[in-house]
Amino acid sequence: MPRLESFEPATGDARACAAKARTGKSRLALQGIAAGLGAALAASWPALALAQVKIGLVLSLTGPAASLGIPARDTATLLPRQIGGQSVEYIVLDDASDTTQAVQDTKKLISENRVDAIIGSSITPNSLSMIDVVADGETPMISLASSAKIIEPVDARRHWVFKTPQTDAMMASAIAEHASTRGVKTIAFIGQADALGETFYVEVAKFAQLHRINVVASERFNRTDPSVTGQVLKILATKPDAVVVGAAGTPAALPPKTLRERGYKGLIYHNHGVGNNDFLRVCGADCNGTFLPASPVLVAAQLPADHPAKRLALDYIARFEALRGPGSVSAFGSYTWDAGMLLSNAVPIALKTAAPGTPEFRRALRDALEGTRGLADTNGVVNMSATDHLGLDQRARVMVEIRNAKWVYQSR
Asked: Fewer Cβ within 10 Å of end Cβ, the chain: N or C?
């Protein structure tokens, strides 16, 4: 940082200036001195005093995943406007639930807006598509999507990528454990025909095998499909004890509704991509008695008093419901809130190294995120490392039953 120098003209210079003043030339000289001094002062002003932290958000505000992105956008209005003594600007872009748009949004935030970090996207395919862009731009990204592939393995590209939602592996293991205790011997899977569905199926199949449960069918559907009758008929032909639905948002309501319409009486499990009230509204009574591993936020008031996420989850719920009304909270908003908590913890550390808006600050911010230890948030306790860019343990998941359009905590 340049030093401020004091300027005091020598006696000889003063006489010269006085003489020149008599010829009218001193005005130009003094103007030049003033301009130079002003430039020196501007250049030497401390960089941090003028800097602003910029956070970009790439969210699915329209399209099939809008029910995930809208709570995230609403939560962004609650994030702190000052961190570590610096003002914070949040720039929100809509990826329209489309991978190509997610890439374009990410490029714009990095090249034009020059953000220091990115939160998003809301869904797995979009988050995966953004990895190369943030790696090339050396800009830390905190994904709001589920797949472990977003952060695993932590290679040269994923070096810049973090996430807040529980991984599909964590949730698939919870489903297999719950199903096993209820005597399930066979399961069928129906999931979205995208990265979310494929990666969740891999984890479901792996943990099912560990619990000696046979996978007897595996079907796919598109987010925009109007019907899954064909897939459901194939599943019913195998007579599974349970069906696992690997989908997110309101499109995930189609398989359980079709299963119930066709008279299926077995257990139905969802993944944690359905943790909002829009899903409950769309699925209605057809989802009564179904289960999902979920964020603690969904049942915060029902959690044991010693659960590490309870206090912070209740605080977030109070803030969000003050904005959007009673019963409006969702897991997807909480993931954005937790991303804000990660940044609130990491930004002051990075500020000790460099000013916002610089490559050095982005690198320091990335390092600070990876160094997060013992940070409690609305989903659990975060302990990240060079090989773990999520940092949550099994306390971050709870089993929930849907009863009459309500989330009901299952203690076992």
From this structure: C
Q: Quote the CA–CA distance of 77 and 89 in Å, as a whole number.
A: 11
Distance CA(276)–CA(69), nearest Å, equals: 11
Dist. CA 322–CA 348, nearest whole Å: 28
pLDDT at 412: 67
Query: What Rg value do the Cα atoms of the chain yield, rounded?
Result: 27
Tokens of 244: 């696992």
Tokens in use for 10? Answer: 């020598």
CA gap 187, 238 in Å, rounded: 9
Q: Does the pLDDT at position 14 exceed 50?
A: no
3-class state of residue 390 by DSSP: coil
Torsion 254-258-260-265 (CA) sign: negative
**How distant, in Å, are the alpha carbons of 22, 227, 375, 377 from that of 341?**
65, 40, 9, 7
Per residue in 360-409, pLDDT tens? 999 999 999 999 999 999 999 999 999 999 999 999 999 999 999 999 99
pLDDT score of 133 more than 70 = yes
Instruction: Give yes or no for a contact between 69 and 122, defined as CB atoms under 8 angstroms apart.
Output: yes
pLDDT score at 12: 39
Structural domains in the chain, sorted by start: 11-45 (no CATH), 50-165+334-372 (3.40.50.2300), 168-294 (3.40.50.2300)
Q: Is the peptide bond before 121 cis (omega within 30 degrees of 0)?
A: yes
pLDDT, tens only, 205-243:
999 999 999 999 999 999 999 999 999 999 999 999 999
